Fold each of these.
Amino acid sequence: MLENIAASLPPGLILLFGALLLPLLPGESPPADGSADGIWPLSGKSKMGMRGVLMLLLPILGLIQMWLLPLGHSSDVELFGYALQPVRVDRLSRIFGTIFHIAALISVIYSLRVRDTLQNLSGLAYAGAAIGAVFAGDLITLFVYWELTALTSVFLIWARRTNRAARVGMRYLIVQVLSGVLLLAGTLFHYADTGSLAFDLLSLDGSIGHLLIFLAFGIKAAFPMLHSWLEDSYPEATITGTVWMSAFTTKMAIYALARGFAGTEILIPIGAAMTAFPVFYAVIENDLRRVLSYSLNNQLGFMVVGVGVGTELAINGAAAHAFAHILYKGLLFMTMGAVLLRAGTVKGSDLGGLWRKMPWTTAFCVIGAMAISAFPLFSGFVTKSMILTAAADEGYTWTFLILLFASAGVLDHSGIKIPYFAFFAHDSKLLPKISGEAPRNMLVAMAIAAFLCIAIGVFPAPLYALLPYDVGDYSAYDLTHVVTQTQLLLGSAAAFVFLQKKGWYPAELRSTVLDVDWVYRKLLPGGLKATYNAIDKGAERTKAAVGRAVLASVNRFGQFFRPGDRSFGEPWPSGETAMWAAVVLVAYLVVSIVSSQVG
Amino acid sequence: MSEHEHGLPSVDARGVKRVLWIFYAALAVFIAIDVVWFGPDWLSNLGQDTHHVESAYADPAHADPAHAAPDTEEHWPNAEDSPQDQPQHPVGHTAETRTDQASFGGHKHGHYAFEKVPAFHALYGFAGFVFLVLAARVLRLFVMKDEDYYGDDAPLDAEQHAEDGHA
């Protein structure tokens, strides 16, 4: 009975449509005092209200419904003669669906004090769209959800209601919609080639359709050079919005790559580059939420390498790393959100010493930092090792070395820089103004994520059981691996101590760090403006020159027909007139002879 | 662009020292395990040309020929001769099960010879981190601009007026 109800509904729709009920329920309006991002700031008791209850229920109901669907379940419909498959349940879609529901639940708990219904509505709908996407069995359904994730999530940026957010949101939307358009175009080419819309392994075989789909996935997965929308937009969303956003879009793209392009070898260098270059930026970036965005990009690189290697171990590694990553990255964004709420800024240059006022947030941040750095007994350790092992198994030596280097880089920006500059280092001037710990609902959300980071690290078996392929007797915990990974991390940390003592570690400076988006934010607009001005000026000059030339030639023409100083009114001499008449007649003769010959 | 220099150190100097000592001790322990426990095995294999490759059953298309066969007595020239009980897929079998040959200590497994050098990972991490930070400082010379470089905070209608004025 329950199964039948569950089977009648595609996963994700409970969140997608349930979110639309939010505004219909009675609820408080946002605080009028302009407190941060619509968050009810009062400490102590706050009424959760019916909206809060609904928000909590939706991800739980969605998760139950999803798990009632058996593996292999699918629904087929025919629409306008096209065979579509809105639902396909297998182990790959189920693990992503599961973590998306968990992420939605944690985000909801984190957002319970948000009195701005727009944010809560779009967050839930966004999660629903992403869940729908990972269960889509055909490319058209995927496209619909793909675009929906863009349209729903942009409001998490715009909800800041600042000039900056308006601009950032528009840039974000343009890039996301571009990805959707590429996906649709690729789908049409693919359909023309194969007559099928099914979303299965596509592979880069030289067909234009598959290339377009690959690029569409690449944009949302933040491939190098296509990445800067991520670092541009995520740090500019609301306090809770960034937590929502960090979970879904990019991991949906990782899922899509794993489904469509597993074993595509070009993904290995792409992924390796993705792990390496953002860490340099993360060292010098001042906005700590932007540091985390670079870090997110770096973590996606590990997953892309896993998808590119494509063995069972590698795909398992990519899926497991996505699962663990959503939790610890969400946790880190939640801690920085709490800092932003209490201190009003997340600029490394302005923070420091916050552990005095926010000890719980500090502890959760350190747990998240250790999880992302892959310390033994934390989640990152048991998932990242699968990808590194798989890469080395297949003989990708350079990739292996780059991933090791990137792991040291992760320790720098997420393991040390985030907690150190926010909570330790030197006491911030803002410290006296900080009223205290994060609100209780935020602490609960952080605690759940932190608990899962440790639980997965200590007992990885339940996560391994969820993975797309059988894990066999793989274990991350053997003496060699524990010793080498801990050495790598402690050796890197020793370098941090060394550089700090020498005074070589770059100070946090208020600044903007230029990335690829500079091309479309400065170079192209500037170039276009300059080109327009040049053309404008050129056109003016040309117009003047042509004008002068025409005037001159008219004068000369006039001179030719008016030899001497005759004016237009004077009759021409008959001899001259006869000559011109003869010329015209000869010309007529020649033309008619030629045309008769040709005809 | 003001440097991060305000207020007092938030943790007193003794606390910092204590944390650092714990940290140095941990680093020393993990290097010591590498040297004392895995060292003998590494030394005993140092003179030999072949090195351990646990993933001999990995995809032969990618495998280095030197790595293709395990350095044990059971040497088989090609895949057809391999015993049927050899695992056919790398999943799950990278955790080393082979008995170690050294008289003392354990066998450090890994895919590459360089991984077995004692303290390789600590040194690689240290060097990588220093390179990363120094390279990032150089990068800063090229990509660091003022905080309001893009002017994203300017009112939207002001921009519109500016554009209208231009047009």
Amino acid sequence: MRLLPKEVESLWTLFTGPTIWAVHFLVCYVAVAIYCEKARTGPFTFAEMRLALVLVTLLALAGIVLSAWLAWRQWGFGSGDPPHDAPTREDRLLFQGFATLLLSGLSFVAVLFVAVPLVLIEACQP
Amino acid sequence: MAAPLVLPGCAGGQSALDPAGREAAEVYDLFVVMVIGGGVIWLAVIGLLVHACRRRRRTWSEEGAGRLIAWGGVAFPVVALFALLAYAVWLMPSIRPWLDRSVPEPAMIDVTGEQFWWRIRYPAEDGMAAFETANELRLPVGERVAFSLRAADVIHSFWIPSLGGKMDMIPGRTNVLSLLPTKTGVYQAPCAEFCGASHAYMAFSVIVMDTKAYDDWRRRQAAGNRPGGSEGERLFAHHGCAGCHSVRGVTPVAGLGPDLTRFSDRRTVGAGALANTPENVARFIRNPSAIKPGATMPAFDMLSQGDIAAIAEFLTGRP
């Protein structure tokens, strides 16, 4: 059994958006937690760490947009209307493309929501 | 129509809806924004429900319905939630001005939660000595005060709804909270974390005063009681009350139970359990557990009525 499939037709693409969201959340959370614990000995300032996390956020958003574009393409750029529920290979592809597109949208918003405190919180709580 | 009858219940000395401090005002603003936002969304959803249930219906085109779902069900919630989240997060530093570490810890008012009362230590300030008191906090209006919050036994929580908070008091930890009272008045502060049998009877009064009255009060407190040689004063020491309770100026420092210096100035007996009257003080001395279940102070019902009345008179300054 291969871990990575040869063809696009795989459930893996479906999870791209949510996976990026989860990784982004983890990176932000862990980075801030470790920074605040070691704030006095750390080699960089809170502003620098925040800037780094903003870059991570932009990267995550770019990844999600890419996944959404691929999904849109798989969905045939919206040429057919859902539900794609016929037991055919084509409908399966279209359904998966559409579901991936929606999940990408959700992940995009979720990443933004995670990033809001980063912009507005000013420092670690002593 | 019921609003004028119901709304007065929101005022008073223990209401977050009647703010008297900067932090409480911020929380109140957040509450109002959320209620109005929630109300508008609720009305819109109910409006759509009524629209969907109407009798003579003209069917929506599939495209129109899709547009409504996309805008009303996706775009609007995303934007509205984003705005509300950003507003709430933006308010956080001002609701909890923990970043203001300009006050060094020794200059903070130290409040320790104990089952079931509050130990309060004022620091030395402007030539006024440090002193300990209990169950009543006095603050100057318009001045930022910082509290260092501790717990002696179990978790308690410090909350003055009219001024701001709350902040947990955790054994082995010191939490810091800073508040800015903006209106003079008398406020109530309940313990906000269940801490045992008398949790509901664990409260303190907060009196926000203008600066001059506050300084006078501090001076009086720091000076302590003046020995008067009364019978009650003698009995207070004779029956062992002074073993746990200090009355500065009259008895040696004890520090186990609540400090009772200038007790006559306080509003309540037993940390908010009863009003401060000689009868209630006598009731408390006779059997504290009848008023506050689980209180550590033993019953002194073996004392004569006369002795108890004399001690109550000594403490309250009233016969």
